[in-house]
Amino acid sequence: MANAARTARKTKRPPALAVEILKSAVMAALLSLVLVVLYAVALRQEWLSTDTMGISTTAIKVICAAVAGLRTAHHAKGKLWLYGILSGAAYSLLSFAVFSLLSQTFVLSLAILSDLGMATAAGLFAVLILQIYK
Question: What are the boundaries of each domain within the chain?
Fold first, then answer.
């Protein structure tokens, strides 16, 4: 009986990195929703003007993609740059799907590719900066 328990402990593997990438994307998408709601409150209270909308939405996307990349890199052993890119891309696609469902519109455009590129770059650079300071 003790041998079976030891064997079970030895065969227990950490979750696959694909699952960690999806978890990171979901967490970043939820963070994105929270930040968008906070930004909407700031607009409603007139703490910020509508002129800040472009830079604010870009900053939210970059921050959330970086968080997704860093979270996945925390669970990875090697090739952190690859997991940063994949996490940023997964966040971008998931957030596009979530916000499309919330707004009840599904419009594909070149802006989506721009967001995807920006998110992958943010995930990559966040992980590279982490590696520099690690």
Answer: 21-133
